[in-house]
Recover the amino acids of this structure.
């Protein structure tokens, strides 16, 4: 219920009232080509597939701070008063439920005032399930989706408790120290049949225990880490350089941001989770094992710096050393002054709607077709994740075409050229 979640809720409420457009949302604004180009079939995605409408959405969530969504949005400072005051009553009605939280996993948040006090992880998981049941009844909703918008947890490799569902459930009962708060949430949601998308770099649903639970309950999952600022730029630029067979010697990236996310990432252990997520992007796009002369010796460095005056206005600087014909060096410099939650909010909307669609279509387990939205896309064992933004978009749209019985766009033959 922090900056991202309240910006998402406020944006949907504002769009309902005609105050603003849901800019950045593929599900709401993007068209999809159907059939051959000369057929001139190019509907909006939201008109092509049976998505839930914005007017059908209800909002709820958990937070270790008791501020309602209006107070939280004001504190976050992302939105102007003109976008908040007109929907103030609706935002004040969104009261966060008490959270599963531990300073062991998120160190830099202090003075929390509503944290669940179960004696074991299982107690807290059962409390979350009760919250889900109560929310479903109070809001009279037919279906639910959970999108994790919470903080980045400290990095830790999987342990034995994560290797299968039986071990994980025993760990919940035994209060195993390797189980994170986000994993408790994921367990509770999946047990309740609620699809779960992970917007942080946490080790949440990408562990064998959760994969087993998702398949057992027939629930879709997706993750991880919203692709918003600097990494979004990387997944645009790197495929372009690779497509022209231009080499890269080094890619230095640094960020400054001042919101709650920046405060949390000021802790080295939480930053490590984010660093792992960010560093993997270039390797999978550039394929250094396939192109060793161009990308086999790239030096990739990522830094994140907490700078309170920035607030939610994140700044990402990239210095890229490239080389071209005969090895001559060149440079690219990018300074992306962006708003973190403004870029993340439409991702939350799209994931909520597409995960609901996946559940209604009977899809279970990892939803790789939603890789478009993540820095570190969850993928099936034995294959590498697809990080090229443009391939990801093709994959997303082809999955939608397939669901609706339309031909896939393969770009083969004279009638199947570039979309658009």
């Amino acid at each position: 219920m922090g900056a991202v979640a309240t910006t998402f809720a406020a944006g949907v409420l504002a769009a309902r009232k005609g105050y603003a457009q849901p800019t950045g949302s593929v599900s709401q604004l993007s068209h999809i080509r159907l059939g051959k180009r000369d057929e001139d079939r190019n509907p909006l995605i939201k008109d092509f597939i049976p998505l839930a409408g914005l007017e059908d959405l209800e909002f709820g969530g958990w937070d270790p701070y008791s501020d309602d969504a209006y107070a939280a949005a004001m504190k976050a400072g992302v939105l102007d008063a003109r976008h908040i005051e007109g929907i103030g009553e609706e935002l004040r009605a969104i009261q966060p439920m008490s959270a599963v939280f531990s300073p062991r996993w998120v160190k830099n948040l202090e003075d929390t005032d509503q944290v669940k006090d179960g004696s074991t992880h299982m107690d807290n998981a059962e409390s979350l399930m009760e919250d889900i049941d109560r929310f479903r009844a109070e809001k009279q909703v037919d279906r639910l989706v959970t999108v994790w918008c919470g903080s980045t947890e400290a990095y830790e490799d999987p342990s034995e408790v994560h290797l299968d569902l039986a071990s994980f459930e025993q760990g919940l009962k035994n209060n195993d120290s390797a189980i994170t708060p986000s994993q408790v949430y994921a367990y509770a949601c999946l047990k309740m049949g609620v699809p779960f998308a992970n917007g942080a770099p946490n080790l949440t649903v990408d562990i064998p225990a959760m994969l087993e639970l998702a398949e057992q309950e027939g629930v879709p999952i997706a993750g991880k880490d919203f692709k918003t600022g600097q990494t979004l730029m990387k997944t645009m630029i790197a495929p372009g350089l690779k497509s022209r067979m231009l080499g890269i010697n080094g890619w230095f990236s640094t960020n400054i941001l001042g919101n709650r996310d920046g405060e949390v990432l000021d802790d080295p252990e939480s930053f490590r989770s984010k660093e792992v997520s960010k560093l993997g992007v270039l390797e999978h796009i550039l394929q250094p094992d396939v192109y060793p002369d161009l990308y086999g010796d790239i030096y990739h460095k990522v830094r994140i710096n907490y700078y309170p005056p920035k607030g939610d206005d994140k700044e990402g600087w990239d210095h890229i050393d490239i080389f071209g014909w005969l090895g001559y060096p060149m440079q690219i410099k990018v300074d992306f002054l962006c708003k973190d939650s403004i870029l993340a909010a439409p991702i939350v909307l799209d994931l909520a709607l597409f995960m609901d669609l996946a559940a209604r279509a009977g899809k279970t387990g990892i939803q790789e077709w939603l890789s478009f939205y993540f820095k570190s896309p969850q993928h099936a064992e034995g294959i590498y994740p697809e990080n090229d933004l443009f391939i990801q978009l093709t994959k997303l749209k082809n999955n939608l075409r397939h669901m609706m019985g339309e031909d896939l766009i393969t770009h083969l033959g004279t009638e199947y050229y570039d979309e658009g």
The radius of gyration is 21 Å.
